[in-house]
Amino acid sequence: MNRRAFLGWVGMGMLAASLPVVIAACTDTDNADTPDTTDSGSGGETPLDTSVRPDGFQALGTIATLDANGTILDSENAAKPVLIYRQPDTNAIAAVNPLCPHKECEVQWQPDLKIFACPCHGSKFGADGSLQVGPSTKPLAKFETKQEGNLILVKVA
Ligand code: FES
């Protein structure tokens, strides 16, 4: 075997030896063994079962998603839009209808100010949905919530 053939065999051997490392580096192993079957559909393995239960509650998000994103907005799976968030003082899970009672613009949760602010005409609502500043004359509609493991259940009446 001449020098050129020998170096060719050594090169092929090194390439073959590094192939498993390259394959392992390119494989997503975050959820490979334990898929999150309760994710809300934003990249999760299985969407939530959002059907309304006999007690009127339905699963509209997970604790993991809420804590990762700060809020969960669901405008598709319930009879009304639902914005899930944490009460800033108690960390309790809460949910409101994010449509402003004035003319139904979508309010924005501002956790640093502990208010919901309407971008259309300036109404402001407290962290509990109470009316603080008009022109709205009504508070945000609140929904009952409860936690079941990693699931957040909301009763949209
Ligand atoms: S729609 Fe919110 S203040 Fe008018």
The secondary structure category is: alpha+beta
The CATH C-level class name of the domain at 57-155 = Mainly Beta
User: Termini distance?
Assistant: 83 Å
Q: Any guess at the CATH architecture of the domain at 57-155?
A: 3-layer Sandwich
Biggest β-sheet: strands ordered side by side in the sheet: 1-10-9-4-3-2
Q: How many strand elements? A: 10
Mean model confidence by pLDDT: 80
Dominant shape = globular
Q: Which ligands does the model contain, each kind named once?
A: FE2/S2 (inorganic) cluster
Number of helices: 2
Element string (H = helix, E = strand): HEHEEEEEEEEE
User: Unreliable segments (pLDDT under 50, ≥5 consecutive)?
Assistant: 18-43
The CATH superfamily of the domain at 57-155 is Rieske [2Fe-2S] iron-sulphur domain
Largest pleated sheet: 6 strands, antiparallel
Q: What is the helix fraction of residues, given as a range?
A: 10-25%
Gyration radius, in Å: 25 Å
Report on the structure:
This protein has 157 residues and is of the alpha+beta class. The chain has a domain at 57-155: Rieske [2Fe-2S] iron-sulphur domain (Rieske Iron-sulfur Protein). The protein contains 2 helices and 10 strands. The strands form 2 sheets. A 6-stranded antiparallel sheet has the order 1-10-9-4-3-2. The protein has a 4-stranded antiparallel sheet with strand order 5-6-7-8, with no helix packed on it. A hairpin with a 2-residue loop joins strand 9 (142-148) and strand 10 (151-155). The longest helix has 23 residues, at 3-25. It is globular, with a radius of gyration of 25 Å. Residues 18-43 have low confidence and may be disordered. Bound molecules: FE2/S2 (inorganic) cluster (FES).
